[in-house]
Amino acid sequence: SPLMAGKRGLILGVANNRSIAWGIARAARAHGAEVAFTYQGDALKKRVEPLAAEIGAHVVGHCDVTVPETIDAVFAEVERLWGGLDFLVHAIAFSDKDELTGRYIDTTEENFSKSLLISCYSLTAVAQRAEKLMTNGGAILTMTYYGAEKWMPHYNVMGVAKAALEASVRYLAADLGPQNIRVNAISAGPIKTLAASGIGDFRYILKWNEYNAPLRRTVTPEEVGDTGVYLLSDLSRGVTGEVHHVDAGYHVVG
Length: 254
Ligand code: 0WD
Fold this sequence. Notes:
7 helices; 7-stranded parallel β-sheet; Rossmann fold; single chain; binds ligand 0WD
């Protein structure tokens, strides 16, 4: 039977058809999973609903991770829909665009707090709710980037947020392991998405990866999706607390 048959997953972070979350959703569906999307605000609702219809995904409502009641509401909807949850995909990040250029040292306290809340704490916030629904174990997956490990031009406060996110993966993995809930991250190479378009000189970063990654190219949301299926399915049942690079090998040379 299909790899993900019988598995029900909530996916946060579909903004449009270039989103990494969309790549993961399509791969999970292709392997037999049931999936549900949230959307952030009415503007994204109009984009997310047709995408959901395209692959037979559910839409469980508006979720802005800075508003805890909206997180509660979508998890309540998931409980009504399925009565449980098997996997969760967290593909969300935010920083003021003006601070994704120039020097890290110029980060404001306001944007630091907001970036860490949306890009890092939100994983823990959703894990708290997911734990209650994952009564038969489960898998949680988040998205990170190499800028957590090394200085990268323009990544600035997002690099600091991703470092904290990767540490969160390890702490959450330890907390949830006894319940057979696994927590992992994919560290994706640069992909041209809406979020990425806010990063200074992004085209240059794509080119740099193309020239220097062992595979001499960048990666696609489909490739991230396929690795996502591995980390969300029982194929990776012995794996937790891991940050898995899907970056055409860039991390070995960069
Ligand atoms: O090169 C890249 N694109 C990489 C992205 C390389 C490595 C990692 N990532 C990460 C991102 O940091 C993020 O964590 O992958 C994740 C998904 O990002 P994406 O697919 O590149 O970007 P996008 O399609 O824009 O989806 C991110 C979405 C938001 O979109 P916009 O662009 O409208 O901010 O995150 C969501 C929103 O849908 N989001 C929120 N959701 C709920 N509450 C919030 C919020 N407050 N803020 C942003």
